[in-house]
Amino acid sequence: MKLNKPHVIRYCRTGLILLLLLAPIAWVWVPGVSDFVSHSLAAFATVDQHAIENLIRSYGAQAAVASFCLMILQAIIAPLPAFVITFANASLFGAFWGGVLSWTSAMAGAALCFFIARVFGRNTVEKLTGKTVLNSMDAFFARYGKHTILVCRLLPFVPFDPVSYAAGLTSIRFRHFFLATGVGQLPATLVYSWAGSLLTGGTFWFVTGLFVLFALTVVISVARSIYLERHRKHV
Predict the structure, then answer these.
(1) What's the CA angle centered on 178, arms 175 and 183, to 5 degrees?
(2) Where does the signal peptide begin and end (predicted)?
């Protein structure tokens, strides 16, 4: 049976409502979930790679699952730059597997933010991101369209989650959003994962500074391509 768009939205809405209802119940009544969220929020407050590493490492054989959940949690409720978790993953699991874990979990978090916005609408998104932040995202999308996703994903200190939420409020198709997200975050994930596997505490901010320069170079290149494309259309 082929599902039309209203049916898909209805099923997504039902699934998200059930998830959002079960999450606080699990937080309150399931000790493991409650402890994980509490410890995660405490680690987020420090914005410290080593605190994140210690939290993930404490779950032993379930460390990869804990990291995956941590990335999704920060995407929804915590204003923590995802690259800190990417560094921690690379340090704990190595450049390759840490990178795979960071990329897939970030994709899952971005997709969840997108569907929360698509299903529940602007009022819910404003409560999660703030009206001012969402308005600034609207301006970016109005000016650059789908390129907004790619550019913002390349900037390490720009919170991407508001972009995911804002994208869900636009007419952009999920597959286009997902593709731009995957491509946009891949270069930084590769570089961060490689560097994270080599980092020590004393070199963290030095290497971070180098990556900022790397990201800015890429963004300038993308912006130049957008400008030239727009210029050709007006000639």
Answers:
(1) 125
(2) none
Per-residue pLDDT, averaged over 21-35, amounts to: 60
Task: Convert the pLDDT of each residue in 106-142 to its tens digit.
Answer: 999 898 889 888 888 888 888 888 888 888 888 778 7
Cα 41-45-50 angle, rounded to 5 deg: 95
Token pair of 227 as six digits = 């400008």
pLDDT at 202 over 50: no
Tokens, residue 73: 């949690």
pLDDT of residue 97: 92
- The CA distance from 142 to 233, in Å, is 17
Between the CA of residue 82 and those of 10, 44, 70, 185, 222, what are the distances in Å? 31, 10, 10, 11, 22
Q: In this structure, what token pair is assigned to residue 192?
A: 């961060």
Reduced to 3 states (helix: H, G, I; strand: E, B; else coil), residue 60 is: helix
Task: Quote the mean pLDDT of the chain.
Answer: 75
Query: Which residue's structure tokens are 């874990």?
Result: 101
pLDDT at 1: 45
Phi-psi region of 47 (alpha: psi -120 to 50; beta: other; left: phi over 0): left
Q: For residue 148, with 0-12 CB atoms within 10 Å meaning exposed, 13-18 middle and 19 or more buried, which class applies?
A: buried
Distance CA 105, CA 83 (A): 12
